[in-house]
Amino acid sequence: MEFNPNNNVIRLCMQGMQMEDKGQPEEAEKLFLQAWDSATNDFEKFTAAYYVARHQDNTADRLKWYDTALKFALKVDNDAVKGAYPSLYANIAQCYEESGDREHAEKNRALAASFRDNPPDKGPFYHGTRADLQVGDMLTPGRISNYKAEFLMNHIYFTALVNGAGLAAALAKGEGRERVYIVEPTGDFENDPNVTDKKFPGNPTRSYRTSEPLKIVGEVTDWVRQTPEEIQKWRERLADNDGEIIN
């Protein structure tokens, strides 16, 4: 299951987040509850419950909704949703801490740490670029960021979604053609902190980073390509983004 911004529940949650940004929490909560009432599958119920939980005034209600979100996340059993496990367990731990139940707080805190340190995604993984590379080449950190020229990147980034890698290739600097390589991590990797648990819970783009080399093991040529107009909109969004890159 890939993240789909056209999904009705996702759209309602996005509208709720816009209300949050405007400082209208009551309107945001109404939209999140509407998303919950509209949810028809486990993924939609997990997503809506997560946002409803954030708007509960008391600890018991927050715990109930975070427990509900976790229950449906576990039923989905999807790599993108598994990226939300650390946040869900950490929030549940905080609720238990506030309730004075230290035993359950520590148990859930340990679960949060275990999932944070070991992303369960088995791939296959992809890296988008305009560089002309060969099978067997190694991609390493230390290159200039595609998005902020003053940044020398400490990690190399990759994704389990081929279309996401294709978008990265389209946005990459350089004059070469767009390339999407199949890659294998040679060491440990982690959820990309620049996208994980930001607008949406977990890592819906299945984006990761590593400080170890990525080995190129193949190349794909078939992915959903953005139109020039869509690419321009992406470039404008990136240009307007003043947020800090977690490097």
Keywords:
Serine Threonine Protein Phosphatase 5, Tetratricopeptide repeat, ADP-ribosylation fold, 3-stranded antiparallel sheet, alpha+beta, 9 helices, 247 residues
Task: Give the arrangement of secondary structure elements.
Elements: H1 8-21, H2 25-38, H3 42-54, H4 59-76, H5 79-82, H6 85-99, H7 102-117, E1 125-129, E2 138-139, E3 156-159, H8 162-171, E4 179-185, E5 190-191, E6 207-210, E7 214-220, H9 228-240
Antiparallel strand pairs: 1-4, 2-7, 3-6, 4-7, 5-6
Helix pairs in contact: 1-2, 2-3, 3-4, 4-6, 6-7
Could you explain the architecture of this structure?
With 247 residues, the chain is an alpha+beta fold. The chain has two domains: 8-117, Tetratricopeptide repeat domain (Serine Threonine Protein Phosphatase 5, Tetratricopeptide repeat, Alpha Horseshoe); 125-240, Rifampin ADP-ribosyltransferase domain (ADP-ribosylation fold), CATH 3.20.170.40. Helices cover 47% and strands 13% of the residues. It contains nine helices and seven strands. The strands form two sheets. Strands 1-4-7-2 form a four-stranded antiparallel β-sheet. A three-stranded antiparallel β-sheet has the order 3-6-5. Helix 1 (8-21) packs antiparallel against helix 2, helix 2 runs antiparallel to helix 3 and helix 3 (42-54) runs antiparallel to helix 4. It starts with 7 loop residues before the first helix and ends in a 7-residue tail after the last helix. The mean pLDDT is 88.
